[in-house]
Amino acid sequence: MSAAAAAAGVSRPHLSATLHAGPRRRRGRPPLSDGDLVTAISGLIADLPTYGYRRVHALLRRHAEATGRAAPNPKRVYRVLKQHGLRLQRAGTRNEQRRHDGRIAVDIRNTRCCSDGLEIACNNGEKVRVAFALDCCDREAMGYVATTAGISAADVFDLMVLSIEHRFGQATELAKPIEWLTDNGSCYTAHDTRRFARDAGLVPCTTPVESPQSNAMAEAFVRTLKRDYVRVNSIPNARAVIDQLPGWSNHYNEVHPHSALSYRSPASSSLAQPKVLSGLQGATTERPRGPVRPLGGNNRKERT
Fold first, then answer.
1. 300, 161 in Cβ contact below 8 A?
2. Of 18, 135, 219, 273, which shows the fewest CB atoms inside 10 Å?
3. Same domain, yes or no, for 156 and 276?
4. Torsion of CA 208, 213, 214, 220, to 10 degrees
5. Lowest mean pLDDT segment, chosen from 33-47, 51-65, 126-140, 267-281
6. Is 100 a residue whose pLDDT tops 60?
7. Are residues 65 and 150 located together in one domain of the fold?
8. By residue range, what is the domain housing residue 63?
9. Can you say how many angstroms the Cα of residue 234 is from the centroid of all Cα atoms in its chain?
10. Does residue 17 sit within a domain?
11. What is the full DSSP assignment across the chain?
């Protein structure tokens, strides 16, 4: 052994340890079985096929916290999705976007909200037009109006009242102003709409012309609604869409993981935010329209 070590130019103990070494032990813990995780992921994406690995991991983590179990690592979730061909397909190349340096989100609830509208085309050719309002802090959908006709100033009146009542109860005026951010649609820039907003305690704010990035939070909600709800549900006619809107709104507020909220839902995020009410005053001004249905129901009748 000594002669062989000297000829090889290595030490005798090193040569002896190399010759008599046993099987190498694996470092770290053995890999976990992916069977249960694949089953859980498959159950989630069966109902939510547009969710990527981050939102899938957020739902798995939420379920694990509720049941007292350890949450899977997000990298493991990505690996399992990749190995089993469950990842989302990559979108095509993006067009160059106009630069936007402003900040839409705010750090305190009930200080700014944004509103926009969208059109949902049904299978039978009917179209449903929806206008909505979001809080720019917790992203909660505070209210919506839906109609088969065009969104009018009267519809925006109803939307403003719904949003105020959703946050503050039966009140039509706020002591502390709340910014109301919209684009330059005629239903938002009408003199009656702006006057009604100011009377209710809202401060109308409009984006620059041809700059949808300035209302990007509302535009992102439009994309989310169409991608995660409209595209994966049956929309044979306008009535079916209007009947499903309350469930979509409730799921978005209570379940949908939002990337800007650390993949929490708007409802769970709002619980962690300080409630800064806007100094509600009583109903001192008379509304120019009749009573509005509460959030969660069909807010508008179908019109032709």
1. no
2. 18
3. yes
4. 140
5. 267-281
6. no
7. no
8. 35-83
9. 21
10. no
11. -HHHHHHHTS-HHHHHHHHT--PPPPPSPPPPPSHHHHHHHHHHHHH-TT--HHHHHHHHHHHHHHHT-PPPPHHHHHHHHHHTT-SPPPP-PPPP----------SSTTSEEEEEEEEEE-TTS-EEEEEEEEETTT--EEEEEEESS---HHHHHHHHHHHHHHHHSS-SEESS-EEEEE-S-HHHHSHHHHHHHHHHTEEEEEPPTT-GGGGHHHHHHHHHHIIIIITTS--SSHHHHHHHHHHHHHHHHHT--BGGGTTB-HHHHHHHS------EE---S--SS---PPBTB--S----
Parallel/antiparallel/unpaired status of strands 178-182 and 202-206:
parallel
Whether 5 is covered by a domain: the verdict is: no
pLDDT digits (tens, 9 = 90+) for 56-76: 999 999 999 999 988 999 999
Token pair in block for residue 27: 């470092």
Terminal-residue alpha carbon distance, the chain: 99
Residue 248 pLDDT exceeds 80: yes
Q: Which two tokens stand for residue 162?
A: 């719904």
Structural domains in the chain (count): 2
| pLDDT surpasses 60 at 149 | yes
Average pLDDT on 190-216 reads 88
Nearest CA among 298, 294, 240 for reference residue 121: 240
Q: Could you tell me if 67 and 124 lie in one domain? A: no
Token digits for 87?
A: 């990842």
Domain with residue 158: its CATH number is: 3.30.420.10
Whole-prediction pTM: 0.71
* Percent of the chain predicted with pLDDT > 90: 53
Q: Report whether 162 contacts 143 (CB < 8 A).
A: yes
How confident is residue 285, by pLDDT bands cut at 50, 70 and 90? very low
Which one, of 42, 45, 76, 71, lies nearest residue 58 by Cα? 71
